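Data deposition worksheet. Section B asks for the primary sequence of the deposited chain exactly as it was used as input, without tags or linkers unless they were present during the calculation. Section C holds the resulting structure in C-alpha cell form. Section D is free text for depositor observations; keep each observation to a single sentence. Incomplete worksheets are returned to the depositor.
Section A, Depositor: J.P.
Section B:
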Amino acid sequence: MDFNQYIRNVKKPIDFQPTGMNKEFYLDIIELALGSYPKEELEERTKQYEAGRADDIQAFSRLTSAIAVLLSLGRKMDYMELWERMMGVCCRDISLITEGAMPDFAVKELMLAYKAMKAHIPEEKRALWLSGLRSVEPSRNYACTLEKNERLHNINIYNMAGEYLRETEGLTRTEEYFNRHWPIQLNNFDENGMYIDPGAPILYDLATRVQIQYILGAGYTGKYAKPLDAMLKSAGLMTLFMQSSAFVLPYGGRSNQFQFNEAFIAANAEYEAVRYKKMGDLVTAGMFKRCAHLAACSVRRWIDQVDIPRHIKNFFPIESKFGTEEYAYYDKYMISLGCFIYPAYLYADDSIEEYPCPAEVGGYVLESSKDFHKIFANCGGNSIEIDTKADFHYDSTGLGRYHKRDIPVELALSLPLAKDANYFLPEGLKKRNLSICPGWETKEGAIQFLSELSDGLEHTLDVQCSTQEKVAFTVTYRGDKINGCKAIKEAYTISASEVRIEATLEDALHDRIYYTIPLFHTNERDYSEISLENGEAEVVLGKSSFHVKTSGSINFEDSSFGNRNGIYKLLCIKGEAKHLSISLILENY
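Section C:
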C-alpha cells in the first residue's frame, strides 16, 4: 500500500470536528488509573514493604512512577509524603532483586519518576535514591540479557530503555551493553519496521517501539540511533493504518484487549506527530495527532463510565480474571494504563492541529508482513481484520474483527475465539476455534472450518478496488491441510452500509458450504437480545445491532463460547452449493 499517496488524497471536510482534546487528557487518564488503588491501601502496602521487601516491584514501580508524574504537574499533592516513601522502597530494593524480570521493567519506571520529580526533592534525598539506582547491574539484576537468554525479546528493550535513562543521569554507560544487544535486536524487525516478539503478538510490536522512543527521545545519538529511528518511522505508519474504525489496537496474540493497548497507540502517535511536524508535513502530523486522541478516548467506556475502572475490555468481576493471562493481574495492568500513556503527554505538541485519520476515513486494504499474518480493510466507517495463519494459543484463522465507530467493539467480534486460549475463561464454556469463516465437508464426511487451520495454510490477496466509497478484495486460501476442496475463496466488499462476503469452494468434493458467526451474548454487565427470523439473525445490544443476512439456511447453537471480551453463542449457516453470500451490518438505532 502506498501510504504517501493515500495521505495526499485525504481532504479535510468542511464540517470536520476536532476532538477538542489536549495533552491534559492524558494526565486525566493517569489519575483515573491511579484512582483504582485506594490511598489507604497504598499506605499499608508501603508500610509492609518498608519493614520487609517489595515483593512486586514491577507493579509498585509503576504506581510510584504514575504518582510522580502527577505530583510533578501539580496534581495529587496530598500523595507527596507517601510517594517519597514508595520511591525510597523502590530505590532501596531494585538492585537487590536477582531473580525474575521485574527489574527489567522497573528501572525505567523509577528513572522516569526520578526525572519527573528531581526538581522538587532535596539533594540529600535524591542522592540516596540515585545511590540505589546506580547499584543496578544488568548482568546481575536483569533477566533478559544475552548471558541468560538464547533469544532476546521485548523485555531486553525495556531494560535497555531503563539503562539509557540511567545514563542520562550519570549512573552508567550504555555503549558496551548496547553493542552486545542491539545488533541482535535489529534482526527482530520485519520489513515494515514492526518488532517480532516470539509468536509475533501485535501488542508487543507497539510496546517495544514505545520503549525505543524513550531512548531516542531522551537524546540517544549513538550508532544504533539511525536504524532504530528508521524502524520507528516505517512502523509508525503501520500503526496509523492498522487502528480500527473504533480506534483500538488490532487483535493478535498476548496481552490483547487491555486498556493500555490504546495507551501505546497514543504514545506512538504523539511521537510520530512531532516527527512529521518537524518535517513540515502537517497533514500526516495531524493524522497522527487525531489517531492518538481517538485511541485515548476509546478507553473511556471502560475507565470513567463505570464504578470500578476495568483493565481489560469486559465487565466480569475483576477477581474472576476473565480473559486475562496469569501475568495480567489487575494490580499490575490497571496502573499500566497510566504509565504507558505518560509518553503521549511527554511528546504531545498541542500546536499540531488534528486532521482526519485513516481509521475514520477508510478506503484502503493493508496487509502486514507474513510474520504478523494480518489483513486490514476499512471503508465507510466499517473496518475488519483477518488473521490468515493464526496462533492458536490466542486466536483463530479467518475474519476475527468487525468494528464500526460508536458501536461496542465486542458486538460483532473484536477478536476470534481460541480452543486452547492462553488466558483464563471459566468452566462450563465450550472450547472451539471460532471466527467468522467458511467450512466444507472432508472426504471422510466431517466438516472442516478455516478457523481450525494454520500451519501449512497459504493465501493470496487480490485487491480490486479501494476508495472511500467501496473497498473490494479477495483472499484465497490453499494448503495441504485443506481436506475436501482445493481452495477457499472469500470475496469481500465493504461500504458504509455493510461488509459483504462471497465465499466459494474450488474443486470441492461436496456441494455444500458452511459458515460460522459467533453472536455476542454478554460481557457480564450487558446482555444482548438474539433473534432469528425469516432466515436472518440479529443481535441487539442497547442501541446497537449486528445484523446477519445470508443466501444459506441458518441454525442457532445455544452453547456458550468465550473470548477475552465475553460469552458468545454460535450462528451456523449452510449453503446447498459451493457458494454462499453473507452480509454483515452494524448500526445504531
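Section D:
The mean pLDDT is 97.
DSSP finds 17 helices and 17 strands in the chain.
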